[in-house]
Amino acid sequence: MRTVEEASNAMALDGIMFEGVQVRVRRPSDYNPSMAATLGPSQPSPHLNLAAVGLTPGCAAAGADGPDRVFVGGLPYYLTEAQIKELLESFGQLRGFDLVKDRDTGNSKGYGFCVYHDPAVTDVACAALNGLKMGDKTLTVRRATASGQPKPDQTNVMVQAQHQIAIQKLALQTPGASPLGMTGLSPFMAGLPGMMPGMIPGMANGFSPAAESPTKVLCLAQVVSADELNDDEEYGDILEDMRGECGKYGLVVNLVIPRPKPSGEVVPGVGKVFVEYSDTVAAAKAKAALNGRKFGGNYVVVIYYPEERFLRGDYSGES
Fold first, then answer.
1. pLDDT tens-digit profile, the chain (319 residues)
2. Pick from 194, 137, 132, 120: which is nearest to 163 by CA?
3. Distance CA 174, CA 305 (A)
4. What residues does 140 pair with on adjacent strands?
5. CA–CA dist 139, 193 (Å, integer)
6. Residue 107 vs residues 84, 98, 103, 122: alpha-carbon distances, Å
7. First and final C-alpha spacing in the chain
8. CA distances to 191, 240, 280 from 245, in Å
């Protein structure tokens, strides 16, 4: 192009239909948005009028592009676009999503691209989803270009990714608390790897699921082991410690830590702590403060728990 402005305006052609074919317009792989920003606008002018020349803006122009664009490959062909978006949005809201389809049949080609509203989510989602088995397929999820934002510390990224996975797995066990409502995807999420050791406190800030409904009851997972609960004295110490810690954020009405039975009978909720606060404000403060905190050598995962299930003594998280 003759100017930076013309090159950026040409990006508005991405996704338009031309003679029955959807046009793809992309920046080169070595495009550096930070350097480009010093030369001129990097986005199309808002005053462009494609309709004046008989063109209709395509859906791809809605935002599945940019320096934090993510390639998602290895998708099972039977997954719908809505299901794929639900999976991706478990890590944060999408700014754009483009599922590549066969031009003649309209069927999925098994790959697509997405961009998150929050760029900080990008590497976490890639680390968590890349290599995930879905049926007979294995997902490939990575940044679409080598350029873009500087890569954060990879150890920290993996830690955050594993913590997010733990939250999703716990939420899927608790009807009414799922951050996704991921119809048909629960078996895949249940197969995600467990939490990595060496997790750092506070790492979950900004990465908790967005669609939870606040309640007065919290479920704290990965707090204690079954062995720690067998000893009466140790159990009493844990109960006292939890009451003291949870009481910092509001009035604790009730606190339950299910214990294993000597007979070996399975007891629902063992390893979890259930805390009922006097109001949802206190519960929200506690959730924000405790999620990702270290307690007894473990890093805590906190979700809201349905009040009606707690009140009837149901700690199973099963339907």
1. 999 889 988 888 887 777 767 788 888 877 777 777 788 888 888 888 887 887 766 544 445 667 788 999 999 888 888 889 988 988 888 888 888 888 888 888 999 989 888 888 888 888 888 888 877 888 899 988 654 444 545 545 555 565 556 555 555 455 444 443 344 454 444 444 433 333 323 333 333 334 457 899 999 887 787 788 888 888 888 899 889 999 999 999 999 999 988 887 888 888 889 999 999 999 988 888 888 777 666 677 888 899 999 999 998 864 3
2. 194
3. 7
4. 73
5. 14
6. 14, 13, 8, 27
7. 60
8. 33, 9, 17
Tell me which amino acid residue 62 is.
Answer: A
CA gap 85, 114 in Å, rounded = 9
Q: What are phi and psi of 70, to 5 degrees?
A: -115, 130
Q: Which two tokens stand for residue 276?
A: 């009922």
Question: Is the separation of the CB atoms in 200 and 265 below 8 Å?
Answer: no
Q: How far apart are CA 214 and CA 298, in angstroms?
A: 24
Rounded Cα distance, 123 and 155, in Å: 11
Structure tokens that stand for 65 in this block? 């592009």
To the question of pTM greater than 0.85 for the whole model, the response is: no
Helix runs in 173-278, H state only: 186-190, 226-230, 232-246
Positive or negative, the CA dihedral 32, 33, 39, 41 is positive
Q: Report in angstroms the alpha-carbon separations of 76 from 155, 169, 241.
A: 29, 21, 47
